Amino acid sequence: VTTSAAARRTSLYDTHVEAGAKMVPFSGWEMPVSYDGIKEEHIAVRTHAGIFDTSHMGEIEVEGPGSLAFLQRLVTNDVAKLAIGRAQYSCLLNEEAGVIDDLFVYRLGSDRYLVITNAGNHETDLAQFGKVARDFDVYVRDAAQDYAMLAVQGPNARKIVANTLHVELPPRMGVVARKVGRRPALICGTGYTGEDGVELLVDPDIAPAIWAELVDAGVVPAGLGARDTLRLEVCFHLHGNDLTDRTDPISAGLGWACKEATGFIGSDKVAVLRANGTERKLAPFIIEGPGIPRQGNPVMVGDETVGEVSSGTFSPSLEIGIGMAYLRTDLAEPGTAIDIDVRGKRRPARVSSKPLYSKER
Amino acid sequence: MNLSEASYPEDLKYHPEHDWARIEGDEATLGITWYAQDSLGEVVFYDGPEVGAEIKKDEPYAEVESVKAVSDVIAPVSGEVIAVNDSLADAPEAVNADPYETGWMVKVRLTDPSELDQLMDSAGYTASLE
Question: B111 to chain A, minimum CA–CA distance in Å?
């Protein structure tokens, strides 16, 4: 994580401060962690609709006749399967199959793509894009300044966005270009909460007005705190916790997003890991009694350390400690009893299946 | 859900680590201040000592956790724990809602009443926060 003296602010900074948000440093940005409380914001997203400022996330535009070949080399998923107006999850790997970042790729036109990066990795990603682009007939541009990003998520999110902004929304995992607030915008049927909803990529200048309209329509402002508890309940990875440039996608359970036949950077290593299996595997778990697991807690079976927690929190939906941990592969099966060493106290836990939370449960 | 305004009752003694003590003879009831619970956010887990435990001034005697963070609770005085607030196991949010009454943590029998001289009054603690 790079921390500069002056944290950057999104175009919604004043909006957050006026709403009484608690602002915290995050990946070089000053972001709202919560407004009225993480639990309430979390439950609002699960039961109604919440809005997140995710403008700190980066965007990279890829354009030109070599776009597809370039992306096939650069990212792990099969971009040839991505139709115009669709979104795809992918990883950006180094030669050793370490995860530099995890990304969403939107196909906007026949030779035009937009890639969404994590705030803390944007500069590293750009460097990697630029380096690989030399071998392709492709134009890569940092578009992070062009967009504010608003994620509106929850069972009522689509209905409220459609009625408030008077726009037709794309299907889940779709993306459409629409006029919002008299400016061009992209509306994406994606999210990071496990709920239905959309992500809006809009002109930063009009983001505060759109935010205000949606909040007036009943959408609840939600901060990064709730974003983290929501994503962890549905076992979505967070780069920096569950993924790093020293973890590979197979151990992380992201084999489904890797299509080695496309020849992406690191594909040979991924093929070997997939064929031979990995020593450890990322697995979700639930604490069976009191205690809240945190990143870095050792995982124990008997006297042996068998893994480490990569993400841990209190689940507002389940009202119990939950997390994900890298475990010795033979232990990463749902039902396995483990102990989490939470600051010297052993907390019994059980390996679970994904997701930890679902409406049907 | 929380006391929305900062409040530091006059009848309590305060420790710089944001803990309070209500002194009654040679006994004291302990908890964390409005400032501490506001900084922490919604408390979702409390892990405290058992009756009979010895706690020592300036040292942690319990842990209190919000969704995002864990924090040690520092003893403002030394003593032997004679009562614990069992209701915090099921309703830790009382620490936010009412940090000075239903959100109390332990009651101790003082082992060194002279320590009380080192604690601040409400005005002193309030000034220390500015």
Answer: 28
C-alpha torsion sign, points A247, A53, A124, A67? positive
- Cβ-in-10-Å burial (0-12, 13-18, 19+) of A163 comes to exposed
pLDDT digits (tens, 9 = 90+) for B53-99: 999 999 999 999 999 889 999 999 999 999 999 999 999 999 999 99
Dist CA A67 CA A15 (whole Å): 38
Nearest to A302 by CA among A338, A329, A336, A347: A338
Residue B107: strand, helix, or coil: strand
Task: Give the Cα separation of B71 and B87 in Å (integer).
Answer: 19
- Up-side HSE of residue A285: CA atoms within 13 Å toward CB? 38
Closest-approach residue (CA) in chain B for A229: B67
Question: Is the predicted ipTM greater than 0.85, yes or no?
Answer: no
Q: Residue A329 corresponds to which amino acid?
A: T
**Token digits for B108?**
């101790």
- What CA–CA distance (Å, rounded) separates A290 from A301? 18
User: Which residues of B fall within a CB distance of 8 Å from A31?
Assistant: none
Give the contacts of A180 (CB within 8 A, at least 6 positions apart): A165, A167, A187, A200, A202, A206, A210
Residue B39, chain A, CB below 8 Å: the answer is: no
Residue A39 has its nearest CB partner, among B45, B63, B67, at B67
Query: Are β-strands A50-53 and A220-221 bridged in parallel, bridged antiparallel, or unpaired?
Result: parallel
Structure tokens at A157: 């999110």
